[in-house]
């Protein structure tokens, strides 16, 4: 059977998806493909196309109206061809049977090359089961293909091992400390309404953390993600669980699932207010036990970042690959850059540049680009009334309580201003495009301060974030180096503010002291960053 391969796009692709014979053939091919994952299933792909309508629909197949030996569903982003699902599809590959894989893949790559000349096909990740025989020997395909290998960690759901891990001293202590705070509960979500009630908080926690570490806020930027995950849950393709204290969500996981595995792909989060208890790790261990009881053999920790918490949880490892099919020149360039990167990387361990850790070149590169971009931006707009004071920055500490007592009453700020305590959604009102500072730095500073136990106050006006202030009691750390035996007085600090006069700032601190602080707070001080001109001028007046 030698069928011709076609690239089908747009309306023709949509019409093919409506053909019951094609859908039936898709199911048969999926069931017979040894390396198929849920991310190639019709339920995943068709719902992704439906939820993310702005992305193109591209089908590569040899379907002749009756038979099909291969299928690759694609889309396009930034002029690169990639699998339908984009980053939500943890594993990306073509469907075929073992006997027809090489033959179909040859035809598919030729068809893609003809339909999209000079464009790159990128798939992340291929599992170790995907046959790559076509790229072993020198020739047309090998010259145009680059593969990058990754460790793929897996956690077997062994109840005895997981329970033993939870009984270890450090984890048992954290569990007991959480229980002292209230009713600690691990739960699995079974109903659509329950998941719908949780998904906003789950995605908020996830976006806040990823925004601080990687400058990525997927759910905030793409509301379609929530719709898509809700659809998958309704179809029985998403396992959702959480850890709570007195009903308050402190960690969660929504993982897309296959027949015997739940993948760490969907949402995973934990609350910064409880991070010192390591709720994310506790949640994963409890989840492993629950998965075993539900018949799952593995919790797939997914490739990438295998040296961190994943290595502590993994019971075994496999391999996975990034795949590029492109021009011979681009392939040679990529191989050369990979050699350079692999030579440089071990030599940069424990090294830093401009305060950035160079151990992870991708993150360091992204952060250094941001630093340069915003440094140039500040040079062009030096008079903008916007100030920051991040942790470990130079500052002075001044007595605030007496200053507030000796100040005559001020006219309150406009009713348009809203002051909230520990309200993380307000941070997403920060407009990086109109700011002199990167959002990533603001988020990272806030995340660490919350983990230190500081109390956050946000001042907003409409959809504009005007200030982020902090109360640092004696029970919270003020800096990385501060010990448990704290002798300093309590502190107020404004880590960010813009377009506020000295009178408005003074009103803000008076409001915080009067409305939010206990009467027992004494000797309140103010920490002022060396560049916070408005505050410095006010205090000197």
From TrEMBL:
InterPro entries the UniProt entry points to: Acyl_CoA_acyltransferase, BioF2-like_GNAT_dom
GO MF assignments: transferase activity
Cited Pfam families: Acetyltransf_6
Statement: the UniProt record of this protein carries the keyword Transferase: yes
Domain BioF2-like acetyltransferase: 168-311
Alphabetized UniProt keyword annotations: Transferase
Name under which the protein is recorded: Acetyltransferase (GNAT) domain-containing protein
The organism of origin for this protein: Aquiflexum balticum DSM 16537
